[in-house]
Write a structure and sequence with these properties.
- The chain is built from 23 helices and 14 strands.
- By secondary structure, it is an alpha+beta fold.
- It has three domains: about 1-390, no CATH class; about 400-490, D-Maltodextrin-Binding Protein, domain 2 (3-Layer(aba) Sandwich); about 510-625, Immunoglobulin-like.
- The protein is elongated.
Protein backbone atom coordinates (compact mmCIF):
# COMPACT_ATOMS: atom_id res chain seq x y z
CA UNK A 1 0.00 0.00 0.00
CA UNK A 2 2.83 2.37 0.94
CA UNK A 3 4.63 1.48 -2.30
CA UNK A 4 1.51 2.23 -4.34
CA UNK A 5 1.04 5.53 -2.52
CA UNK A 6 4.69 6.44 -3.09
CA UNK A 7 4.45 5.68 -6.81
CA UNK A 8 1.26 7.75 -7.13
CA UNK A 9 2.84 10.58 -5.18
CA UNK A 10 5.91 10.59 -7.45
CA UNK A 11 3.64 10.69 -10.51
CA UNK A 12 1.71 13.66 -9.13
CA UNK A 13 4.93 15.49 -8.27
CA UNK A 14 6.29 14.86 -11.77
CA UNK A 15 3.03 16.06 -13.32
CA UNK A 16 3.10 19.17 -11.15
CA UNK A 17 6.68 19.96 -12.17
CA UNK A 18 5.72 19.54 -15.83
CA UNK A 19 2.74 21.88 -15.51
CA UNK A 20 4.73 24.52 -13.65
CA UNK A 21 7.56 24.27 -16.18
CA UNK A 22 5.06 24.69 -19.02
CA UNK A 23 3.76 27.88 -17.44
CA UNK A 24 7.26 29.27 -16.96
CA UNK A 25 8.20 28.43 -20.55
CA UNK A 26 5.01 30.09 -21.79
CA UNK A 27 5.73 33.26 -19.82
CA UNK A 28 9.37 33.40 -20.94
CA UNK A 29 8.46 32.92 -24.60
CA UNK A 30 5.59 35.40 -24.41
CA UNK A 31 7.87 38.03 -22.87
CA UNK A 32 10.47 37.50 -25.61
CA UNK A 33 7.85 37.78 -28.35
CA UNK A 34 6.38 40.92 -26.81
CA UNK A 35 9.79 42.58 -27.02
CA UNK A 36 9.95 41.83 -30.75
CA UNK A 37 6.28 42.49 -31.53
CA UNK A 38 5.36 44.60 -34.55
CA UNK A 39 3.52 47.72 -33.31
CA UNK A 40 1.01 47.83 -36.18
CA UNK A 41 0.79 46.72 -39.81
CA UNK A 42 4.26 45.59 -40.82
CA UNK A 43 4.01 44.31 -44.41
CA UNK A 44 2.16 45.18 -47.59
CA UNK A 45 2.29 42.17 -49.86
CA UNK A 46 1.43 39.19 -47.67
CA UNK A 47 -1.31 37.76 -45.49
CA UNK A 48 -0.35 39.67 -42.34
CA UNK A 49 -1.88 42.80 -43.92
CA UNK A 50 -4.96 41.00 -45.20
CA UNK A 51 -5.95 39.46 -41.87
CA UNK A 52 -6.43 42.70 -39.86
CA UNK A 53 -8.88 44.06 -42.43
CA UNK A 54 -10.62 40.68 -42.79
CA UNK A 55 -11.02 40.43 -39.03
CA UNK A 56 -12.29 44.01 -38.78
CA UNK A 57 -14.92 43.39 -41.45
CA UNK A 58 -15.59 39.80 -40.35
CA UNK A 59 -15.00 39.01 -44.01
CA UNK A 60 -13.60 35.88 -45.66
CA UNK A 61 -9.86 35.34 -45.84
CA UNK A 62 -8.08 33.89 -48.85
CA UNK A 63 -8.45 30.10 -49.34
CA UNK A 64 -9.10 28.11 -47.21
CA UNK A 65 -11.01 30.89 -45.48
CA UNK A 66 -9.44 30.41 -42.01
CA UNK A 67 -12.74 30.70 -40.09
CA UNK A 68 -11.21 29.79 -36.73
CA UNK A 69 -8.44 32.37 -37.07
CA UNK A 70 -10.86 35.12 -38.10
CA UNK A 71 -13.20 34.45 -35.17
CA UNK A 72 -10.35 34.22 -32.66
CA UNK A 73 -8.89 37.37 -34.16
CA UNK A 74 -12.17 39.19 -33.65
CA UNK A 75 -12.18 38.06 -30.03
CA UNK A 76 -8.61 39.29 -29.51
CA UNK A 77 -9.40 42.63 -31.18
CA UNK A 78 -12.37 43.47 -28.97
CA UNK A 79 -10.29 45.15 -26.21
CA UNK A 80 -8.76 47.56 -28.75
CA UNK A 81 -10.89 47.63 -31.94
CA UNK A 82 -9.11 50.72 -33.27
CA UNK A 83 -5.78 48.86 -33.43
CA UNK A 84 -6.73 45.51 -34.96
CA UNK A 85 -3.29 44.94 -36.49
CA UNK A 86 -1.54 45.24 -33.13
CA UNK A 87 -4.11 42.99 -31.46
CA UNK A 88 -3.56 40.28 -34.09
CA UNK A 89 0.19 40.62 -33.68
CA UNK A 90 -0.41 40.08 -29.97
CA UNK A 91 -2.51 37.03 -30.74
CA UNK A 92 0.35 35.54 -32.74
CA UNK A 93 2.68 36.12 -29.79
CA UNK A 94 0.20 34.45 -27.43
CA UNK A 95 -0.21 31.36 -29.60
CA UNK A 96 3.52 31.32 -30.30
CA UNK A 97 4.23 31.14 -26.56
CA UNK A 98 1.50 28.52 -26.15
CA UNK A 99 3.06 26.45 -28.94
CA UNK A 100 6.46 26.59 -27.22
CA UNK A 101 4.87 25.40 -23.95
CA UNK A 102 3.05 22.62 -25.81
CA UNK A 103 6.33 21.48 -27.36
CA UNK A 104 7.63 21.01 -23.83
CA UNK A 105 4.50 19.07 -22.83
CA UNK A 106 4.74 16.87 -25.92
CA UNK A 107 8.43 16.31 -25.24
CA UNK A 108 7.90 15.13 -21.69
CA UNK A 109 5.02 12.89 -22.87
CA UNK A 110 7.48 11.03 -25.10
CA UNK A 111 8.76 9.28 -21.96
CA UNK A 112 6.70 7.16 -19.62
CA UNK A 113 8.84 8.61 -16.80
CA UNK A 114 10.09 12.14 -17.57
CA UNK A 115 13.13 12.25 -15.29
CA UNK A 116 14.94 15.47 -14.40
CA UNK A 117 17.50 15.08 -17.24
CA UNK A 118 14.70 14.48 -19.73
CA UNK A 119 12.71 17.49 -18.54
CA UNK A 120 15.83 19.62 -18.75
CA UNK A 121 16.37 18.39 -22.30
CA UNK A 122 12.82 19.35 -23.23
CA UNK A 123 13.37 22.84 -21.85
CA UNK A 124 16.08 23.11 -24.47
CA UNK A 125 13.76 21.65 -27.13
CA UNK A 126 11.05 24.18 -26.40
CA UNK A 127 13.38 27.19 -26.39
CA UNK A 128 15.34 25.97 -29.40
CA UNK A 129 12.09 25.76 -31.34
CA UNK A 130 10.64 29.02 -30.04
CA UNK A 131 13.77 31.09 -30.66
CA UNK A 132 14.33 29.88 -34.20
CA UNK A 133 14.24 32.89 -36.58
CA UNK A 134 11.47 31.50 -38.79
CA UNK A 135 9.12 30.74 -35.91
CA UNK A 136 10.09 33.93 -34.06
CA UNK A 137 9.24 36.00 -37.13
CA UNK A 138 5.76 34.47 -37.26
CA UNK A 139 5.17 35.13 -33.54
CA UNK A 140 5.58 38.89 -33.96
CA UNK A 141 3.00 39.74 -36.63
CA UNK A 142 -0.51 38.74 -37.73
CA UNK A 143 -0.02 35.30 -39.25
CA UNK A 144 -1.52 31.82 -39.00
CA UNK A 145 1.54 29.71 -38.30
CA UNK A 146 1.83 30.01 -34.52
CA UNK A 147 -1.72 28.73 -34.04
CA UNK A 148 -0.97 25.93 -36.48
CA UNK A 149 2.10 25.05 -34.39
CA UNK A 150 -0.13 24.86 -31.31
CA UNK A 151 -2.29 22.30 -33.10
CA UNK A 152 0.67 20.20 -34.27
CA UNK A 153 2.22 20.11 -30.80
CA UNK A 154 -1.15 19.41 -29.16
CA UNK A 155 -1.85 16.55 -31.56
CA UNK A 156 1.53 15.00 -30.74
CA UNK A 157 0.89 15.38 -27.00
CA UNK A 158 -2.63 13.91 -27.13
CA UNK A 159 -1.47 10.97 -29.26
CA UNK A 160 1.38 10.23 -26.85
CA UNK A 161 -1.00 10.47 -23.89
CA UNK A 162 -3.56 8.26 -25.72
CA UNK A 163 -6.42 10.73 -25.25
CA UNK A 164 -8.25 9.60 -28.34
CA UNK A 165 -11.54 11.53 -28.23
CA UNK A 166 -9.74 14.77 -27.41
CA UNK A 167 -7.33 13.94 -30.23
CA UNK A 168 -10.21 13.52 -32.69
CA UNK A 169 -11.69 16.86 -31.66
CA UNK A 170 -8.34 18.65 -31.87
CA UNK A 171 -7.64 17.17 -35.30
CA UNK A 172 -11.02 18.33 -36.59
CA UNK A 173 -10.47 21.78 -35.13
CA UNK A 174 -7.02 22.01 -36.70
CA UNK A 175 -8.59 21.42 -40.12
CA UNK A 176 -10.62 24.62 -39.72
CA UNK A 177 -7.38 26.55 -39.51
CA UNK A 178 -4.53 25.37 -41.73
CA UNK A 179 -4.88 22.50 -44.15
CA UNK A 180 -1.32 21.24 -43.63
CA UNK A 181 -2.55 19.86 -40.29
CA UNK A 182 -3.99 17.05 -42.43
CA UNK A 183 -0.40 15.83 -42.86
CA UNK A 184 -0.60 14.63 -39.26
CA UNK A 185 -3.16 11.96 -40.24
CA UNK A 186 -0.63 9.19 -41.09
CA UNK A 187 1.23 9.74 -37.81
CA UNK A 188 -1.98 9.71 -35.79
CA UNK A 189 -3.03 6.51 -37.54
CA UNK A 190 0.30 4.93 -36.59
CA UNK A 191 -0.22 5.97 -32.96
CA UNK A 192 -3.68 4.40 -32.96
CA UNK A 193 -2.57 1.16 -34.59
CA UNK A 194 0.38 0.82 -32.23
CA UNK A 195 -2.06 0.91 -29.32
CA UNK A 196 -4.75 -1.24 -30.94
CA UNK A 197 -3.40 -4.00 -33.25
CA UNK A 198 -6.22 -3.98 -35.77
CA UNK A 199 -5.07 -7.21 -37.41
CA UNK A 200 -6.29 -8.97 -34.28
CA UNK A 201 -9.93 -9.30 -33.32
CA UNK A 202 -9.16 -8.47 -29.70
CA UNK A 203 -7.47 -5.24 -30.77
CA UNK A 204 -10.46 -4.18 -32.83
CA UNK A 205 -12.88 -4.94 -29.99
CA UNK A 206 -10.78 -2.97 -27.55
CA UNK A 207 -10.70 -0.05 -30.01
CA UNK A 208 -14.51 0.05 -30.24
CA UNK A 209 -14.81 -0.12 -26.45
CA UNK A 210 -12.28 2.63 -25.77
CA UNK A 211 -13.27 4.85 -28.68
CA UNK A 212 -16.97 4.51 -29.55
CA UNK A 213 -17.27 5.25 -33.28
CA UNK A 214 -20.23 7.59 -32.87
CA UNK A 215 -18.47 9.72 -30.26
CA UNK A 216 -15.28 9.77 -32.30
CA UNK A 217 -17.15 10.88 -35.43
CA UNK A 218 -18.91 13.68 -33.55
CA UNK A 219 -15.65 14.82 -31.97
CA UNK A 220 -13.91 14.87 -35.35
CA UNK A 221 -16.67 16.45 -37.43
CA UNK A 222 -18.24 18.90 -34.99
CA UNK A 223 -15.46 21.51 -35.31
CA UNK A 224 -15.91 21.54 -39.09
CA UNK A 225 -19.19 23.38 -38.50
CA UNK A 226 -17.01 26.47 -38.24
CA UNK A 227 -16.79 26.45 -42.04
CA UNK A 228 -20.41 27.60 -42.10
CA UNK A 229 -18.88 30.98 -41.35
CA UNK A 230 -18.08 31.31 -45.06
CA UNK A 231 -21.61 31.14 -46.47
CA UNK A 232 -22.92 33.12 -43.49
CA UNK A 233 -20.51 35.95 -44.35
CA UNK A 234 -20.73 35.41 -48.08
CA UNK A 235 -22.43 38.77 -48.57
CA UNK A 236 -19.32 40.47 -47.15
CA UNK A 237 -17.06 38.32 -49.31
CA UNK A 238 -13.27 38.26 -49.57
CA UNK A 239 -11.01 41.27 -50.04
CA UNK A 240 -10.15 40.37 -53.61
CA UNK A 241 -13.72 39.36 -54.49
CA UNK A 242 -12.67 35.80 -55.34
CA UNK A 243 -15.10 34.07 -52.97
CA UNK A 244 -18.27 32.95 -54.74
CA UNK A 245 -21.17 32.37 -52.35
CA UNK A 246 -22.39 29.14 -53.91
CA UNK A 247 -21.86 25.47 -53.16
CA UNK A 248 -19.20 25.24 -55.86
CA UNK A 249 -17.52 28.45 -54.69
CA UNK A 250 -17.62 27.35 -51.05
CA UNK A 251 -16.06 23.98 -51.83
CA UNK A 252 -13.43 25.51 -54.09
CA UNK A 253 -12.48 28.00 -51.38
CA UNK A 254 -12.09 25.57 -48.50
CA UNK A 255 -10.12 23.18 -50.71
CA UNK A 256 -7.55 25.85 -51.43
CA UNK A 257 -8.84 27.42 -54.61
CA UNK A 258 -6.40 25.44 -56.72
CA UNK A 259 -3.35 26.90 -54.95
CA UNK A 260 -2.21 23.55 -53.62
CA UNK A 261 -2.35 21.80 -56.96
CA UNK A 262 -0.59 24.69 -58.67
CA UNK A 263 2.37 24.56 -56.29
CA UNK A 264 2.51 20.78 -55.88
CA UNK A 265 2.13 19.86 -59.54
CA UNK A 266 3.80 22.93 -60.98
CA UNK A 267 6.30 25.64 -60.23
CA UNK A 268 4.67 28.94 -61.26
CA UNK A 269 7.40 31.10 -59.69
CA UNK A 270 10.27 29.00 -60.99
CA UNK A 271 11.70 28.25 -57.52
CA UNK A 272 14.64 25.86 -57.70
CA UNK A 273 15.90 24.64 -54.32
CA UNK A 274 18.72 22.20 -53.81
CA UNK A 275 20.28 20.45 -50.86
CA UNK A 276 22.31 23.50 -49.81
CA UNK A 277 19.16 25.62 -49.53
CA UNK A 278 17.51 23.19 -47.13
CA UNK A 279 20.74 22.61 -45.19
CA UNK A 280 21.17 26.36 -44.68
CA UNK A 281 17.53 26.71 -43.66
CA UNK A 282 17.96 23.99 -41.07
CA UNK A 283 21.24 25.39 -39.77
CA UNK A 284 19.81 28.90 -39.43
CA UNK A 285 16.83 27.64 -37.45
CA UNK A 286 18.42 25.08 -35.11
CA UNK A 287 22.15 25.66 -35.32
CA UNK A 288 24.64 22.95 -36.19
CA UNK A 289 24.33 21.23 -32.82
CA UNK A 290 20.51 21.01 -32.96
CA UNK A 291 20.46 18.33 -35.67
CA UNK A 292 23.43 16.59 -34.00
CA UNK A 293 21.51 16.30 -30.74
CA UNK A 294 18.42 15.24 -32.72
CA UNK A 295 20.32 12.24 -34.13
CA UNK A 296 21.38 11.27 -30.61
CA UNK A 297 17.84 11.68 -29.32
CA UNK A 298 16.20 9.72 -32.11
CA UNK A 299 18.74 6.96 -31.66
CA UNK A 300 17.95 6.82 -27.95
CA UNK A 301 14.21 6.67 -28.60
CA UNK A 302 14.55 3.91 -31.19
CA UNK A 303 16.74 1.92 -28.79
CA UNK A 304 13.94 1.69 -26.24
CA UNK A 305 11.30 -1.02 -26.26
CA UNK A 306 8.42 1.43 -26.73
CA UNK A 307 8.29 2.35 -30.41
CA UNK A 308 5.22 4.60 -30.16
CA UNK A 309 7.09 7.89 -29.74
CA UNK A 310 9.72 7.43 -32.48
CA UNK A 311 7.08 6.01 -34.85
CA UNK A 312 4.66 8.89 -34.24
CA UNK A 313 7.26 11.64 -34.56
CA UNK A 314 9.10 9.91 -37.38
CA UNK A 315 6.02 9.49 -39.58
CA UNK A 316 4.95 13.08 -38.90
CA UNK A 317 8.44 14.31 -39.75
CA UNK A 318 8.46 12.32 -42.99
CA UNK A 319 5.02 13.55 -44.05
CA UNK A 320 5.82 17.22 -43.54
CA UNK A 321 9.27 16.94 -45.09
CA UNK A 322 7.99 15.10 -48.18
CA UNK A 323 5.28 17.72 -48.68
CA UNK A 324 7.65 20.65 -48.26
CA UNK A 325 10.19 19.27 -50.69
CA UNK A 326 7.48 19.22 -53.38
CA UNK A 327 5.78 22.50 -52.49
CA UNK A 328 7.10 25.38 -54.62
CA UNK A 329 5.69 28.45 -52.86
CA UNK A 330 8.01 31.39 -52.22
CA UNK A 331 7.62 31.38 -48.43
CA UNK A 332 8.50 27.71 -47.98
CA UNK A 333 10.36 28.35 -44.71
CA UNK A 334 7.15 28.76 -42.70
CA UNK A 335 5.92 25.37 -43.89
CA UNK A 336 8.98 23.82 -42.28
CA UNK A 337 7.87 24.87 -38.79
CA UNK A 338 6.47 21.38 -37.95
CA UNK A 339 9.74 19.86 -39.20
CA UNK A 340 11.71 22.20 -36.93
CA UNK A 341 9.43 21.27 -34.05
CA UNK A 342 10.02 17.54 -34.37
CA UNK A 343 13.76 18.00 -34.78
CA UNK A 344 13.74 20.14 -31.64
CA UNK A 345 11.90 17.37 -29.76
CA UNK A 346 14.50 14.84 -30.84
CA UNK A 347 17.25 17.27 -29.86
CA UNK A 348 15.67 17.65 -26.45
CA UNK A 349 15.62 13.88 -26.07
CA UNK A 350 19.28 13.87 -27.10
CA UNK A 351 20.23 16.42 -24.48
CA UNK A 352 18.28 14.37 -21.93
CA UNK A 353 20.46 11.39 -22.84
CA UNK A 354 23.63 13.47 -22.45
CA UNK A 355 22.54 14.90 -19.10
CA UNK A 356 21.56 11.45 -17.88
CA UNK A 357 25.01 10.11 -18.69
CA UNK A 358 26.69 13.06 -16.98
CA UNK A 359 24.60 12.45 -13.91
CA UNK A 360 25.93 8.88 -13.69
CA UNK A 361 29.61 9.84 -13.78
CA UNK A 362 30.96 8.39 -10.52
CA UNK A 363 33.75 10.93 -10.01
CA UNK A 364 34.76 14.33 -11.23
CA UNK A 365 33.16 17.74 -11.49
CA UNK A 366 29.80 16.55 -12.81
CA UNK A 367 29.20 14.49 -9.71
CA UNK A 368 29.44 17.63 -7.57
CA UNK A 369 27.48 19.84 -9.98
CA UNK A 370 23.70 19.84 -9.64
CA UNK A 371 21.98 18.71 -12.80
CA UNK A 372 19.94 21.90 -12.82
CA UNK A 373 23.12 23.97 -13.22
CA UNK A 374 24.19 21.89 -16.20
CA UNK A 375 20.78 22.38 -17.82
CA UNK A 376 20.91 26.11 -17.10
CA UNK A 377 24.33 26.26 -18.76
CA UNK A 378 22.97 24.68 -21.96
CA UNK A 379 19.89 26.91 -21.96
CA UNK A 380 21.91 30.08 -21.25
CA UNK A 381 24.28 29.17 -24.07
CA UNK A 382 21.28 28.79 -26.37
CA UNK A 383 19.82 32.15 -25.38
CA UNK A 384 23.16 33.94 -25.80
CA UNK A 385 23.80 32.29 -29.15
CA UNK A 386 20.35 33.19 -30.42
CA UNK A 387 20.67 36.73 -29.11
CA UNK A 388 23.94 37.16 -30.96
CA UNK A 389 22.97 35.61 -34.29
CA UNK A 390 19.23 36.11 -34.75
CA UNK A 391 17.80 39.52 -35.55
CA UNK A 392 14.20 39.16 -36.64
CA UNK A 393 12.61 41.55 -34.15
CA UNK A 394 9.84 43.74 -35.54
CA UNK A 395 9.80 46.10 -32.55
CA UNK A 396 9.69 49.70 -33.72
CA UNK A 397 8.98 48.69 -37.32
CA UNK A 398 6.64 51.53 -38.31
CA UNK A 399 7.73 51.76 -41.96
CA UNK A 400 4.58 50.34 -43.55
CA UNK A 401 2.34 52.10 -41.04
CA UNK A 402 3.94 55.47 -41.78
CA UNK A 403 3.79 54.89 -45.53
CA UNK A 404 0.05 54.17 -45.40
CA UNK A 405 -0.75 57.32 -43.43
CA UNK A 406 1.57 59.38 -45.63
CA UNK A 407 -0.13 58.13 -48.78
CA UNK A 408 -3.59 58.94 -47.44
CA UNK A 409 -2.49 62.44 -46.40
CA UNK A 410 -1.68 63.47 -50.00
CA UNK A 411 -4.84 63.27 -52.16
CA UNK A 412 -7.01 66.30 -52.63
CA UNK A 413 -10.47 66.04 -51.04
CA UNK A 414 -12.49 63.32 -52.75
CA UNK A 415 -9.44 62.27 -54.76
CA UNK A 416 -9.11 58.74 -56.11
CA UNK A 417 -6.09 56.48 -55.59
CA UNK A 418 -5.49 53.57 -57.95
CA UNK A 419 -3.03 50.83 -57.01
CA UNK A 420 -2.49 47.13 -56.62
CA UNK A 421 -4.45 45.12 -54.08
CA UNK A 422 -1.84 45.03 -51.30
CA UNK A 423 -1.40 48.80 -51.32
CA UNK A 424 -5.15 49.38 -51.40
CA UNK A 425 -5.63 46.96 -48.50
CA UNK A 426 -3.20 49.08 -46.49
CA UNK A 427 -5.17 52.25 -47.23
CA UNK A 428 -8.48 50.49 -46.53
CA UNK A 429 -7.14 49.38 -43.16
CA UNK A 430 -6.48 52.96 -42.05
CA UNK A 431 -9.72 54.24 -43.52
CA UNK A 432 -11.95 51.60 -41.95
CA UNK A 433 -10.16 50.69 -38.73
CA UNK A 434 -8.62 54.01 -37.73
CA UNK A 435 -11.02 56.35 -39.56
CA UNK A 436 -8.30 58.12 -41.58
CA UNK A 437 -9.36 60.05 -44.72
CA UNK A 438 -12.62 58.24 -45.49
CA UNK A 439 -13.18 60.80 -48.28
CA UNK A 440 -10.41 59.24 -50.40
CA UNK A 441 -11.65 56.71 -52.93
CA UNK A 442 -9.41 53.70 -53.50
CA UNK A 443 -9.53 51.29 -56.42
CA UNK A 444 -7.48 48.09 -56.61
CA UNK A 445 -6.22 46.89 -59.99
CA UNK A 446 -3.32 44.46 -60.04
CA UNK A 447 -2.59 44.21 -63.77
CA UNK A 448 -0.97 47.10 -65.61
CA UNK A 449 -3.65 47.08 -68.30
CA UNK A 450 -6.43 47.11 -65.69
CA UNK A 451 -4.87 50.10 -63.91
CA UNK A 452 -4.42 51.94 -67.19
CA UNK A 453 -8.04 51.32 -68.19
CA UNK A 454 -9.24 52.45 -64.76
CA UNK A 455 -7.24 55.67 -64.91
CA UNK A 456 -8.52 56.43 -68.41
CA UNK A 457 -12.13 56.13 -67.25
CA UNK A 458 -11.55 58.27 -64.18
CA UNK A 459 -9.78 61.01 -66.13
CA UNK A 460 -12.55 61.01 -68.71
CA UNK A 461 -15.01 61.54 -65.86
CA UNK A 462 -13.01 64.50 -64.57
CA UNK A 463 -11.75 62.76 -61.41
CA UNK A 464 -8.60 63.75 -59.53
CA UNK A 465 -6.45 60.62 -59.84
CA UNK A 466 -3.35 59.36 -58.05
CA UNK A 467 -1.23 56.26 -58.58
CA UNK A 468 0.77 54.41 -55.94
CA UNK A 469 3.53 53.47 -58.39
CA UNK A 470 4.64 53.99 -61.97
CA UNK A 471 2.38 52.65 -64.72
CA UNK A 472 4.26 51.02 -67.63
CA UNK A 473 2.71 51.83 -70.98
CA UNK A 474 0.80 54.87 -69.79
CA UNK A 475 -0.24 57.14 -72.67
CA UNK A 476 2.28 59.73 -73.83
CA UNK A 477 -0.30 62.51 -73.49
CA UNK A 478 -0.76 62.03 -69.75
CA UNK A 479 1.00 64.36 -67.34
CA UNK A 480 2.42 63.37 -63.95
CA UNK A 481 3.51 65.09 -60.77
CA UNK A 482 4.57 63.75 -57.37
CA UNK A 483 2.38 64.20 -54.29
CA UNK A 484 4.33 62.82 -51.37
CA UNK A 485 4.75 59.10 -52.09
CA UNK A 486 1.89 59.18 -54.64
CA UNK A 487 1.82 60.16 -58.33
CA UNK A 488 -0.77 62.64 -59.57
CA UNK A 489 -2.07 61.83 -63.06
CA UNK A 490 -3.75 64.31 -65.38
CA UNK A 491 -4.88 64.42 -69.00
CA UNK A 492 -3.67 68.05 -69.26
CA UNK A 493 -0.67 69.90 -67.80
CA UNK A 494 -1.06 70.34 -64.06
CA UNK A 495 -1.09 73.83 -62.55
CA UNK A 496 2.17 75.04 -61.06
CA UNK A 497 2.47 73.60 -57.54
CA UNK A 498 3.15 75.80 -54.55
CA UNK A 499 6.64 75.84 -53.08
CA UNK A 500 8.33 77.58 -50.15
CA UNK A 501 11.60 78.79 -51.68
CA UNK A 502 12.11 80.16 -55.19
CA UNK A 503 15.30 79.32 -57.09
CA UNK A 504 14.82 80.00 -60.81
CA UNK A 505 18.15 78.40 -61.71
CA UNK A 506 18.83 76.60 -64.99
CA UNK A 507 20.09 73.08 -64.22
CA UNK A 508 20.35 72.00 -67.86
CA UNK A 509 19.58 73.95 -71.05
CA UNK A 510 16.11 72.35 -71.05
CA UNK A 511 15.24 72.24 -67.35
CA UNK A 512 15.19 74.84 -64.58
CA UNK A 513 14.55 74.44 -60.89
CA UNK A 514 11.73 76.88 -60.19
CA UNK A 515 11.76 76.27 -56.47
CA UNK A 516 11.53 73.77 -53.70
CA UNK A 517 10.02 72.92 -50.31
CA UNK A 518 11.53 71.02 -47.41
CA UNK A 519 9.22 69.22 -45.02
CA UNK A 520 9.47 66.47 -42.41
CA UNK A 521 6.68 63.93 -42.95
CA UNK A 522 5.19 62.30 -39.88
CA UNK A 523 7.38 59.35 -39.05
CA UNK A 524 8.33 57.15 -36.12
CA UNK A 525 11.92 57.18 -37.35
CA UNK A 526 14.49 59.33 -35.57
CA UNK A 527 15.36 61.55 -37.26
CA UNK A 528 12.33 61.81 -39.52
CA UNK A 529 13.18 61.78 -43.23
CA UNK A 530 13.87 65.07 -44.96
CA UNK A 531 11.35 65.43 -47.77
CA UNK A 532 12.63 67.50 -50.64
CA UNK A 533 9.90 68.58 -53.07
CA UNK A 534 11.47 69.99 -56.22
CA UNK A 535 9.48 71.99 -58.77
CA UNK A 536 10.93 71.67 -62.26
CA UNK A 537 10.22 74.18 -65.01
CA UNK A 538 10.46 72.61 -68.49
CA UNK A 539 11.75 74.87 -71.24
CA UNK A 540 11.80 72.13 -73.84
CA UNK A 541 11.60 68.36 -73.79
CA UNK A 542 15.02 66.80 -73.06
CA UNK A 543 16.44 64.46 -75.68
CA UNK A 544 17.54 61.82 -73.12
CA UNK A 545 16.03 60.27 -70.02
CA UNK A 546 17.80 61.76 -67.03
CA UNK A 547 17.89 60.62 -63.42
CA UNK A 548 18.07 62.65 -60.23
CA UNK A 549 20.51 62.21 -57.38
CA UNK A 550 19.21 64.10 -54.33
CA UNK A 551 21.76 64.39 -51.52
CA UNK A 552 22.36 65.93 -48.12
CA UNK A 553 25.92 67.00 -47.43
CA UNK A 554 27.26 67.44 -43.90
CA UNK A 555 29.47 70.32 -42.75
CA UNK A 556 32.56 68.56 -44.11
CA UNK A 557 30.96 68.07 -47.53
CA UNK A 558 30.45 64.34 -47.09
CA UNK A 559 27.27 62.68 -48.33
CA UNK A 560 25.08 62.01 -45.28
CA UNK A 561 21.99 60.86 -47.20
CA UNK A 562 21.27 60.14 -50.85
CA UNK A 563 18.40 59.02 -53.06
CA UNK A 564 18.79 58.24 -56.75
CA UNK A 565 15.68 57.77 -58.89
CA UNK A 566 14.00 58.60 -62.15
CA UNK A 567 11.74 61.65 -61.77
CA UNK A 568 8.27 61.45 -60.21
CA UNK A 569 8.84 58.06 -58.58
CA UNK A 570 9.99 56.54 -61.92
CA UNK A 571 6.66 57.44 -63.53
CA UNK A 572 7.61 60.38 -65.76
CA UNK A 573 10.75 60.03 -67.95
CA UNK A 574 12.25 63.39 -68.88
CA UNK A 575 11.90 62.65 -72.60
CA UNK A 576 8.13 62.81 -72.10
CA UNK A 577 8.16 66.18 -70.36
CA UNK A 578 6.34 68.92 -72.24
CA UNK A 579 7.66 72.42 -72.83
CA UNK A 580 6.07 74.96 -70.53
CA UNK A 581 4.85 72.58 -67.82
CA UNK A 582 5.93 72.57 -64.18
CA UNK A 583 6.43 69.25 -62.41
CA UNK A 584 6.57 68.46 -58.69
CA UNK A 585 9.18 65.81 -57.87
CA UNK A 586 9.61 64.33 -54.37
CA UNK A 587 12.64 62.73 -52.71
CA UNK A 588 12.82 61.44 -49.14
CA UNK A 589 16.32 61.56 -47.65
CA UNK A 590 16.98 59.35 -44.63
CA UNK A 591 19.77 60.48 -42.33
CA UNK A 592 21.43 57.96 -40.00
CA UNK A 593 20.09 57.70 -36.42
CA UNK A 594 21.22 60.55 -34.22
CA UNK A 595 22.22 62.80 -37.12
CA UNK A 596 21.60 66.50 -36.45
CA UNK A 597 22.97 69.87 -37.40
CA UNK A 598 23.37 71.79 -40.64
CA UNK A 599 23.13 69.96 -43.98
CA UNK A 600 23.26 71.25 -47.53
CA UNK A 601 20.89 69.77 -50.16
CA UNK A 602 22.57 68.99 -53.48
CA UNK A 603 20.61 68.08 -56.63
CA UNK A 604 22.37 66.41 -59.56
CA UNK A 605 20.87 65.50 -62.92
CA UNK A 606 22.78 62.77 -64.77
CA UNK A 607 22.51 60.53 -67.81
CA UNK A 608 22.38 56.85 -66.73
CA UNK A 609 22.89 55.69 -70.33
CA UNK A 610 26.19 57.58 -70.60
CA UNK A 611 28.16 56.21 -67.65
CA UNK A 612 26.07 58.35 -65.27
CA UNK A 613 27.61 61.49 -66.75
CA UNK A 614 26.53 64.58 -64.83
CA UNK A 615 24.61 67.11 -66.94
CA UNK A 616 23.74 69.66 -64.28
CA UNK A 617 23.66 70.38 -60.57
CA UNK A 618 22.37 72.90 -58.08
CA UNK A 619 23.24 73.44 -54.45
CA UNK A 620 20.56 74.71 -52.06
CA UNK A 621 20.97 76.72 -48.85
CA UNK A 622 21.81 74.98 -45.59
CA UNK A 623 19.01 73.45 -43.59
CA UNK A 624 18.93 72.60 -39.89
CA UNK A 625 18.03 69.05 -38.88
CA UNK A 626 17.15 68.35 -35.26
Amino acid sequence: MNSEFSTTNKYHRSSLVTRHSSLVIFLVAFAVYLRGLAPSVATIFDDSLEFPLVVHRLAIAHPTGYPLYVLLGKLFSLPNPGQVAFQLNLMSAFFGALAVAMVYRAGTAIFSRPTAPRRAGMWLAALMFGLGPVFFSQATLAEVYTLNAVFIAALLWLALRKKWLALAFMFGLSLTHHRTAALMAPALAVALISRYPLHRRAGRRQLWRDIPPAKAAVALLAPLILYLYLPLRGAVGSLDGSYENSWAGFWRHIMGGGYGAAFLLGNPFGNERGFLFYAELLQNELGWWGPALAIVGLGGLVGRKNWRAPALTGVAFGAFLAFNLQYTVNDIAVFFIPVFMILALWAGAGLGEVLGLLQKIPTGAFRETPLQLIAIFFIAALLLWRGATVDVSRAGNWTVHDFGLDALAQPAPAGTVVGILGEMTLLHYFQEVEGTRPDVRTIAADRDDARRETVEKLLAAGETVYLTRELPGSPAEWHFSAAGPLIRVSASPLPAPNFDTAVGAAVTPEISLAGYSITRPNSHKTPAPVRLTLVWQVRQSPAVDLKVSARLLDAAGNVAAVTDAAPVHFAYPTTRWHAGETIADVYDLHLPPGAAGAFRPLIILYDPANNAAEVGRVELPLIQVE
